[in-house]
Amino acid sequence: MDADEIDIDHLARLAALRLDGDERSGVERDLQRIIALVDEMQAVDTEGVDPLAHPLDATQRLRADEATELIDRERYQAGAPEARDGLYLVPSVLSDP
Amino acid sequence: MAPFSSLRELRQGLGRGDCTSLELTEAALDRARRLHESLNCFITLDEEKAVAAAVAADRRLQDGSAGPLTGMPLAHKDLFCIEGWPTTCASKMLANFISPYTATAIDRLQGAGSVTLGKLNMDEFAMGSSTETSHFGPTANPWALQRTPGGSSGGSAACVAAGITAAATGTDTGGSIRQPASFCGVTGLKPTYGRVSRYGMIAFASSLDQGGVFARDVEDAALLLSVMAGFDPRDSTSSAHRDPWLESVPDNGVGELAGDSLTIGLADEFFSEVSEGAECIDEARQALEALGFRCRTVSLPHIRTAMPAYYVIAGAEASTNLSRYDGVRFGHRCDQPASLADLYERSRSEGFGTEVKRRILTGTYALSAGYFDAYYLKAQKIRRLVAEDFAAAFRAVDLLLAPTTPGTAFRRGQLTDDPVAMYQQDVCTIPVNLAGLPAISLPCGLHEGLPVGVQLIARHFDERRLMQAGAAFQRATNWHEARPALEGAS
Questions:
Q1: CB spacing of B358 vs A27 below 8 angstroms
Q2: Which of A76, B33, B47, B172 has its CA 20 to 30 A from that of B207?
Q3: Predicted ipTM?
Q4: CB contact under 8 A, B239 and A56
């Protein structure tokens, strides 16, 4: 939990971000300051306190199990950077045998 | 009608036939264009759509089917999806995104007859306190063009403060309505979490995000809230709480506080943060006491650690919410990806700005293996302590009075190299979001020519007393009527 121990390359990989050069060093320095700030939390005694996930302490509402979504594929794919024949295109995932 | 008319004045003018929606809309478009170069508060203005909506509104006014907002030009933070409109969240990632659907809150405002003038500038993905992280350039503060309007909803605050529209929407995750409202001298309301549907609001931190409004005064803010609020089955955290008072606002206004005078709590933990404008906040307290409110000191011992807990929770939720931007289904995609991993990484690295990356990485750190208990879980426990502090205070008092911000609007560029100093801007607003409470920032004076805001905070779903107290304050004072000179604005 030492801010100096941040492995920026590992975090970037987990977050699917690529940081190079000046941006990498700048973000690393900023992140060390941010983690030092959030480490102020460690001084608070939270023994026996339950975590609060929802500000009204509510739980997720369930709806009736009915199909309600209207799938308008053409319309939703109109904003896709690369789509063809109703499919989203991505680089090949499997390499040639 | 004058550019600084309130929604109620516009409603009266339209109802009497003193003006048409088309005239109001064209005047607002004209003012927006004239001020664009100096303020940069709009990302998108759409004359064609606005004029079509105004013409339709004038028809409704003619045939007697007008709603409470019919014909009134409004502008919306560019985080609300509106069908057929670019919805960018001020990010390169969504620079070319046209929304295929409309957010519930905007759908209700448009259904009530309002005219959408355009989409307003903001910090990228609502992450910031100065509207300087926008991909579309910074917005200026109408009171002092070299200063920031605050953020993240800085475009909304500037638009209302400059008299372009009478009101605008915004969102508040850690202070993004109240802080810019304070910096720009307008009224800014963050409702109780769950009041306003988040459906169609581009997600930043889902357990904190709440839509709200900027307006000239509390009465107008309540009018807009009455239209925007209400249960929405499409938002899983939308509240089913019914509020007959709020439903009566379009007809009766916010009304007077009934019964006994209220007690207002003051917490030293908030006031010790103030560096500028303390005299204005003290005068606001005195004005409330003169109205019969009793003031007493309360203690909120954990709010100092609310800020670090907030940056963990908001970062964690942001890193999760923003994982959807992958260059595949919508949004920015890099050129010539060599592999799927290359597509993800380069699309995201090119599409997101530096502050967004910082937040994603903070959240990734807090959620990563070995750190989850020490950061994310710890932050959620502090969140409960903060919420319990407020609950204890509200057993003794009806409302809390607090500064909205530590100081007045800072200079553009002043804090951009120091993210932690920028985060400190929200020290008085963040605890309210962690607890999900409603709060409003009211103009309460000028410090060296710059607006100062004071914050009232209420119990969950007690917008009635929050706004009745705010309206009483505004009947007794005239700070909400102060206008920027807009010197040097073209």
A1: yes
A2: A76
A3: 0.93
A4: yes
